């Protein structure tokens, strides 16, 4: 019973922490650290929520959740008799776990299919341009710049973007898209998109997805700043925002007008870095969450 209560308390703490993190102001000062914390909160919440129900359900086995589930799957009878509450908790826990796994797999499969279709489309309508080597160019008048993530990643710009941006601004935008590809931000977003599908009514899930989307853009901005002037990237974002940029295709990561001013202000007037003690403390908290929660699945308190 103590294990179930502990996991339930941990799930509530993760939910509260996620709610507070949606309004935290420090995240823009360390977007990569904030992304790590978001990921750890998501993993811990999922495991703690399902684990709390399953821990109560398998109480008659008098061993840890993981060992009890193995015994249950193998048909081994519990040491104590089942009652209606334990059966209901088992059904609810397995259903919740199945929903989380299914929506994650579904979101991943849909993203892979969308990218596969888009690569086929690009092979037909995009072209190479010696002025931007390694980049596919679309003959479209609207401004667009995005990447197709994956093992065969591609960076795509439109003819409209080439006409809209100066050489330095284009370099900044391409460095930003290359950062998305290099750091696999598509994989960072995937579980949050899946959670939004599993909990479409949850404001916290919606806000979490929006926050992580903004944070990966800021993280890509930070990497792009290593290769270009922050002001050039800021002016490029403003140009995209005022020119009515073409929507980024489904499953891709690209430049869009959402949260442009927050990113521009951050590029032009960067705030102080997050203190090292705070960085290490957040990383330690994240590691504790993703290691302690699975550990609670293996013990019986």
**DSSP, total strands:** 5
Oligomeric status: single chain
Shape: elongated
Summed over residues and divided by their number, the pLDDT gives a mean of 87
Which keywords apply here?
about 300 residues; mainly alpha; 2 domains
Written overview of the protein:
- Residues 113-191 form the Peptidase M48 domain.
- The protein has 301 residues and is mostly helical.
- It has two domains: 1-21 and 33-82 and 276-301, no CATH class; 99-270, no CATH class.
- Helices cover 66% and strands 6% of the residues.
- The chain contains eleven helices and five strands.
- A five-stranded mixed β-sheet has the order 1-2-4-3-5, with helices on both faces.
- β3 (145-148) and β4 (154-158) form a beta hairpin.
- α2 runs antiparallel to α8 (203-224), α4 (84-125) packs across α7 (185-198) and α9 (230-243) packs antiparallel against α10 (260-268).
- It is elongated.
Topology at a glance:
Elements: H1 2-21, H2 31-57, H3 65-73, H4 84-125, E1 126-128, E2 135-138, E3 145-148, E4 154-158, H5 159-164, H6 167-182, H7 185-198, H8 203-224, H9 230-243, E5 253-254, H10 260-268, H11 276-296
Parallel strand pairs: 2-4
Antiparallel strand pairs: 1-2, 3-4, 3-5
Transmembrane segments: 6-23, 35-58, 84-109, 276-297
Domain Peptidase M48: 113-191
Family: Belongs to the peptidase M48 family.
Offer a concise description of the structure.
The chain is mostly helical and 301 residues long. The chain has helices at residues 2-21, 31-57, 65-73, 84-125, 159-164, 167-182, 185-198, 203-224, 230-243, 260-268, 276-296, and strands at 126-128, 135-138, 145-148, 154-158, 253-254. The chain folds into two domains: 1-21 and 33-82 and 276-301, no CATH class; 99-270, no CATH class.
């Amino acid at each position: 019973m103590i294990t179930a209560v502990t996991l339930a308390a941990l799930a509530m703490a993760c939910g509260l922490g996620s709610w507070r993190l949606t309004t935290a102001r420090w995240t823009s000062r360390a977007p990569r650290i904030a992304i790590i914390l978001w990921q750890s909160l998501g993993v811990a919440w999922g495991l703690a929520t399902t684990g709390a129900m399953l821990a109560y359900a398998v109480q008659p086995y008098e061993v840890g959740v993981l060992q009890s589930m193995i015994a249950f799957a193998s048909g081994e009878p519990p040491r104590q008799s089942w009652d209606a509450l334990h059966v209901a908790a088992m059904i609810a826990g397995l259903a919740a776990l199945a929903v989380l796994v299914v929506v994650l797999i579904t979101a991943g499969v849909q993203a892979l299919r969308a990218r596969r279709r888009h690569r086929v489309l690009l092979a037909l309508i995009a072209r190479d341009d010696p002025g931007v080597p390694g980049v596919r160019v679309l003959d479209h008048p609207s401004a667009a710049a995005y990447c197709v993530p994956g093992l065969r990643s591609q960076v795509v710009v439109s003819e409209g973007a080439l006409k809209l941006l100066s050489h330095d601004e284009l370099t900044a935008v391409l460095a930003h898209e290359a950062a998305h590809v290099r750091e696999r931000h598509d994989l960072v977003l995937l579980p949050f998109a899946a959670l939004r599908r599993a909990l479409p009514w949850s404001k916290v899930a919606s806000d979490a997805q929006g926050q992580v989307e903004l944070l990966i853009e800021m993280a890509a901005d930070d990497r792009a700043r290593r290769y270009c002037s922050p002001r050039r990237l800021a002016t490029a974002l403003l140009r995209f925002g005022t020119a009515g940029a073409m929507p980024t295709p489904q499953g891709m990561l690209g430049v869009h007008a959402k949260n442009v001013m927050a990113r521009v202000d951050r590029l032009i007037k960067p705030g102080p870095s997050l203190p090292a003690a705070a960085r290490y403390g957040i990383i330690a908290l994240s590691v504790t969450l993703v290691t302690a929660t699975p550990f609670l699945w293996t013990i019986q308190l």
